[in-house]
Structures are given as structure tokens and as C-alpha cells.
Amino acid sequence: MSQKIFSKEVDIEVPFHDADMMYVAWHGHYLKYFEIARCALLDTFSYNYMDMMASGYAWPIIEAHLRYPGSALFGQTIRVKATLTEWENRLRIEYLVTDAASGKRLTTGYTIQVAVNINTREMLFASPSVLLERLGVAE
Fold first, then answer.
1. Residue 123 DSSP symbol
2. Please, what is the end-to-end C-alpha distance for the chain in angstroms?
């Protein structure tokens, strides 16, 4: 059985307020760019943050990793691709940031989120069935 691939790309123009005095996007803003792509990805299978809350679960990020082989600059249009690579026990989303025009790789990374029951505040050790249903992978 082949595994489904859930992926979404968004284009973002690096705004002036994200750049340092050398017009390079500050490294911390990449997490914001990841978030924009992550929200677009979650929308593709109708389980965005409002849907998560309505289903009784919060999905906090418990780990984030970034690698910066290149730099984004003020005014540059970047393409951020978010791909869901794990969902059975957690959400692992991998990111690729490229120059939208050339395709040159600028940044890579991933985030990991876990399900937490909103009422009990307990972390789940397996993804809730609502997520699997939304992904179309429920058994």
C-alpha cells in the first residue's frame, strides 16, 4: 500500500520589517513562514487550528528544526512547501523554502506537533481518529 502525500506550497514576499540592515530575512522569521505554509497545508484536509479546537484537541509544537543553506532577502518572493510526513502518533511537517523564481534552496526544516486533549490537558500517544478521518487514512 502506498502512503498518501499531503503537501502544499505558498509564495511569500519577504517584507521590509522581516529584514535586518543588510536586507537579509532574520532567521527567526522562518518559523513564521513555516506557520503560513503549515496553515495552508492543514486547510487542504480540513483540519486547521479552529477544526482542531472544535474536535477537542490542541496540537502544540514540541520540536522545531531549521537549516539555513541560503538567505532570503527583502522583496524576494520565496516559495514555502510544507509536507506532512508523519501522522500516526504525531504530526511531522517538513519544510522547504526556495527562491520562487529560480528554485534555489534557501532553508529546510521540520516541526513536530502532538495531540493534547483540551479538557484533560493530557498528551495522546496516538493521533486521534478525527485526524485520520480527515486525512482519509482511517481503518
1. B
2. 13
Instruction: Give, as one character, the DSSP assignment of residue 74.
Output: T
Cβ distance 37 to 80 under 8 Å? yes
| β-strand partners of 93 | 84, 111
Question: What is this structure's pTM?
Answer: 0.94
- When the candidates are 1.10.8.50, 3.30.9.10, 3.40.50.300, 3.10.129.10, the CATH number that belongs to 6-135 is 3.10.129.10
Going by their DSSP bridges, the two strands 57-58 and 116-117 should be labelled as: antiparallel
State how far the Cα of 45 lies from the Cα of 104, in Å rounded to an integer: 28
List pLDDT tens digits, range 45-61. 999 999 999 999 999 99
12: helix, strand or coil:
strand
Query: Looking at residue 2, what is its pLDDT?
Result: 45
CA 22 – CA 74 distance, rounded (Å) = 9
